[in-house]
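Bench log. Compound arrived from synthesis this morning; before running ITC I wanted a structural hypothesis for how zinc ion sits in the protein. Inputs:
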Amino acid sequence: MLSCKLKINQIAVFHTDTKIIFSILPKQKRSSCPLCNKYGNRIHSHYVRSLADLPISGKLVQLQLRARKFFCRNKSCPRKIFTERFSQDILPYARRLCRSIDVLRSIGLEVGGNKGALISRIAGNPVSSSTILRLIQQLEIEGTTTTSGVIGVDDWAFKKGRNYGTIIVDLERKKVVDLLPDREADTLKQWLLKHPEIHTVSRDRASAYSKGTKEGTKEAIEVADRYHLHVNLRDAFKRVLHKHSTTLKAAFIAFSRPGNREPLLEEEKARSLPTPKCTSNSQRQMKFEKAKELHQQGYRIKTIAKMLQAGPRTIGKYIQHDEFPKRQAPVLQVTMTNFHEFREYLSKFYGKQDYPTLYKNIRDKGFNGKYTQFCSNMNQFIKPDSDNIFLPKLSPIKTWSTSKISFMVLQPEDRLKKTDQAFLKFLYNKAPEIKAAVEMAVQFKSLFKNKEEGPLESWLTRALQPESELRSFARGVKHDYSAINQVVISVISNGQVEGQVNKLKNIKRMMYGRANFPLLKKMVLHESMVHQK
Ligand SMILES: [Zn+2]
């Protein structure tokens, strides 16, 4: 009835509203000592052992086994008394039957501790999240011993900016092979030394992995990661745009206001426009870390600001913070007032009364803004030295961030919006040097299409010319030439590693911060084994 291999002498059943209790007297005559394996049959004492089982009709099930303690017959055995051992379904010291443990562990491996505890409660087998995590920790899951020989390596953040681990994926079997606790060259090297069958390693452009691969394998082919290559290319292009920011700003104005053709005016206006900022968090973080470092070396805030091309207040803020301050979402401000209703009145008295009096008068007539809003409205609409004091409102100047432009130029034209297309055409006309850089970047991107040997070489020759804008990027490519050439000629891609990293992040977050490295490793390897056969 209990469908476990326990031999039963007598059984009694009690039940309450929530619980069914089986009180059991086992049938086995004797039991063997766990140390010396000799059977003992002299009973020392009895005790009741409680074990949880799977629920029946939503009710908790508890087995109460009347277990015995035996004397060990072996005189030389260090254990004098031992407790009775039962069938394989009941492990020594366990508080629940194996099948119950298996169910809880499977739930935990799928959804983590907290969610697992919730589901187990719904299923009528309530346990705490810690119990589920403990059950997973008891499980032995190790990385795969042999691989197909083609692996992808990438890093993942345990805590972003603080500590990182490494994920190793079998690119042919599409499985996670192992997780490493850091992203050092030496750790990867040690791992690779245990896997001599590996002949191809796809990795991102981090030099640590390159070093680890070279030292850990004899002649493995290294393949750079296409995604990071594209990121580097875009960053390089952004730097080009920064270099030509004045031209770019002039282009924004000329594009938005086609009438304004005079170059002088454009240039003057351009100066008043904010410089297109490179606002990627990684760059700000880089500045943050650099500022901290320089400050520790004893540099003054003003000096650091000059060195890093940032405002002294920004640097001051960085130094005060222990952690990199994230940018907050801008607060929406409602600035609409009914200023336009008083234009006629203001044009009559403008110049005869000062601003506070004008403000007081129109406020009495029903103006709904504050004094500062009144002033900014006045400044916007009134030009003192012209006869007509109310100029028509100028059309706003449309701008594009450097990130956006670097994204746009690498897209096929038909995928862009009409305005974006038009602006790019306009920009290429205005700035041939930017156009040249775009052509260079597009050519680099198209290298990966045809899988031929040779085009990278000729691209490099062109890109390393002194007039080329992407020279520094090209130097980086040259430095890592063999790995990048592999991307051009082979079909191996690190794309699925990124996918596996996403999955890992998902599992990590599901664990609500309770996933230490060994636990996370078990969850990830289990996920990979079960779901990707
Ligand atoms: Zn013994």
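What the model suggests: Confidence is low (pLDDT under 50) at residues 261-268, 385-393. The radius of gyration is 36 Å.
ITC booked for Thursday regardless.
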